[in-house]
Amino acid sequence: xxxxxxxxxITLMLGTTAALAQNPQExxxxxxxxxxxxxxxxxxxxxxxxxxxxxNTVILTGQVTNPVLxxxxxxxVKKIEGVESVENNIEVLPLSPMDWQIRRAVAHAxxxxxxxxxxxxxxxxxxxxxxxxxxxxxxxVVNNExxxxxxxxxxxxxxxxxxxxxxxxxEKG
Length: 173
Known about the structure:
It is built from six helices and nine strands; from the N terminus they run βααββαββααββαββ. The protein is of the alpha/beta class. It has two domains: 6-92, 3-Layer(aba) Sandwich (hypothetical protein tt1634), CATH 3.40.1520; 97-170, Histidine-containing Protein, Chain: A.
């Protein structure tokens, strides 16, 4: 039996990920998992949901601020037609008032930048701010390399931020 390995990030464009599927069933699973995760009610710009599809198994990864979001993600994916098993490896970030202050400050700094308004006017803004113990990771999609660099510089200038890992992807187009 051939094993297919598909990785997807919710904040990335789903069409490119579905194209990686080896058969129609896997493509269906990839598409549905992405849709269901994006529709979760507690999914915010402070969460990062990613997943892999290996045959009929979905492996959930990423980081969330709310433990309910972790369990909800696993539950909705289990109900998708064709999914036989779900490994829920999503990390619940520590409860920290300082991290919440940093999250809000970084988001405000980035989305307050001239030219960054368009990233925030989407149903699910494309730049996600993940904070764990003062360390910031930026994930998502931006239009160009300049926006990626600028978002990283802005995040690094926020008080109490220890480090910034800029994992933003530049949209191909």
